[in-house]
Every structure is written in structure tokens, then in C-alpha cells.
Fold:
Amino acid sequence: MKPNSRRLLIIAILPLLAISCGIFSPLASALEPGQGPAQVTLQAPAVTVVQPAPIQLPAVTVDEEALLIELYRQVNPSVVNIITYTDQGSFEASAGQGSGFVFDREGRIVTNSHVIHGADAIEVIFTDGTTLAAELVGEDLHSDLAVIQVSGLPAGVQPLPLADINEVAVGQTVLAIGNPFGLGGTLTRGIVSAMGRNIPALTAFSIPQAIQTDAPINPGNSGGPLLNLRGQVIGVNAQIETSDGSRVNSGIGFAIPVSIVARVAPALIQNGEYEWGWLGVVGGTISPAMIDAMDLPVQKGAYISQTVEDGPADRAGLRGSRDEVTVDGRRTEIGGDIIIAIDGQPVGSFDDILIYIALNTNPGQEVVLTILRDGQTQDVKLTLQPRPSGTREFLQP
Structure:
């Protein structure tokens, strides 16, 4: 082959190598130019929230670094530092610190309930140094969410748009912005590590559908947004998993999902509280040992261990476990009703019931449980009640 021919061949191959090595980032093609002030209307119980216009990002982005820089520039002013104080008689003492994000143009800010719970005074600090007193609009201990409000927003500060939980996927890149250890405007990066986790609330109940992430979050991040690369809120950073009680990030953090935020925050704004539907059962997911011990004709479902006295399930006549047996050396509850569907939706685990009740029902609503009892299938109708109140000790970032 002649030298000139080799040179032409090399030149022809280079663009292919550039694409395969990621020099031309696929991120650029995934981004779309802003489409102006189009708005999305989000439906929630008893109130309608008009979503902010989408974050306007560059139509062409050469690499992810440029995207992150621009996204931070636009989003960071909407993330605030929250300082709380308690009345000590002759003075107010600083009680805690956390994060929050602007939810609407009326100056309402979403944060965690555990950030502001019990505070006598709340102070909000914006990235430009503006410091404003805030009033509590409402809080929900069951979801660990709260809404506070300031008298106005600094120039240029915009509410953050909410994402669709159905578009959140394990492996996608996420960003956390907040104030860990009081260090304002800190950006960290990671991925969605898992979906559908149950995490503890400030009550005896769990928060379903939580997002697990390895984006570093630490004390002070609580209440701040977990974002996708479009600048949309996919969750509210709330908890971290630690092994030594140090309360320092070890690579596992949890965010309250946007599906919960979208239901609870509007209700807090309108009513000051949010009421959750309550079934009144304690239970778990059926195991192979239980399937063998009870000779169940199904491989998936949720069992009822006990019903709460005078709760919805108890009033409807549902039965909890009545005995225990040993199967392969393990104690296994038997005799309780097995839930295999709710309102016609298949139930594969106890978590399925928690998620359905949390995201699709309200107190006073009738649901139909399809159960297995003594080998027979039957439908049981019951009316959900509001969850009972009550708090528990809760220490998170």
C-alpha cells in the first residue's frame, strides 16, 4: 500500500475510534433544547400544583462536566440552608441545621420534618447570603416531609421541577446538593443504587419506594434535593446507613421518593397535614417454608401475622397467624390470611401492599383484598382508616 493510501485510511478510521472511545459524548444527543415556559400540571389529593418550567440546559453539551457545571449554576440558588433554634428562656439557642429546596414561587420550601421538628424559630439562608425567617406551613411525620415558607424569594431564585418516579432507574446518574456539616452549596455525584427500599419514618411506620444512592450525603444534607441530569427533583435526601454509629456516609444513602413528595407537599400547603390510609395489619412476605407448611397454592403473596385491634382489617374479619411450626430448623408462622391481590392488583410481597396503600388510597376509601384462607380464595372489603399518630426517636443526617 502506498504511503498516501495508508494516511487516508488512518484519517478515515479516526472518527470511528473517537466515537467508540467516548470523545463524542452520548450525553449530548440525549439532551434536548429548552422548549420555553411550558408547564406540567401535577395532580395530588385535594390540591393541584402547577409545576415550574423545566431547567434550561444547553442544547449541545460536549461532555458531562460542562453539563454538571451548568446544572449546578442554575439549581444551586434554589437550594437553601436551614438553621433551627429553640427557646431557652432568655435567648434562642441553635438546635440544628439542614437543607431544603424552593417548591413554588410563593416562597414555600420543602425539607425533612426531622430538620425542623420542635423548632421555636426557623431561619433560611440563600446562596447569595440573603437570610429570612421562615414559618412552618405543615409537616408529616409519617413521610418525614415538611413545608416551610419565607416572605419572598431573592431575585433569580426559581422553584425546582419534580421528576416522574417512573423514569427513575437503577444505574442513572444523580446529584445531591445541600449543606453537609454546614458547608453550603455542596454538590456530590453518584448513581441510583437501588429502588423500592422501605426506610423508617419518625413514627412506627415505614416510608415506601425510597431511592437508594451512593451519592455522598452527610449530616446537613437532610431535606436537600436528589436530582437527575435534567435538574429535576427525584427525591429528598433523608437518611444514611452506617455501621459504627458515626453518622458519616459509607456509600449508602436514602431519599424520600418524588412520588411521596408529590402527594404530601401539596396537602401540607393546603391543609397543614397529610392523612395516610391505614390497613391495620402486621405481616410479611410469604416464604418457601410457609408455602410448604401451609400447602399454599401460590408462590407469592403477603401474610398477615396479626391485625391491630379495632383497626380496618380487624373490623373486616381478617385473621392473623394462629400458630408456629418448625420447618428445616426455622420457626414459621402459619394460619393467617394470605393476601394475593388488592383492588385486583397482584400482590407479590408485603411491600406491594404498603406501596399501593400509600400511593393510591386515602382514609375512608374502600379497598378489596383478595385472600387465601384455608386453601380457599375470597374477597374481603374494608374501609381504610387514618394512621394513628405517635413519634419515635430518630437521628439522621
The longest strand covers residues 186-200.
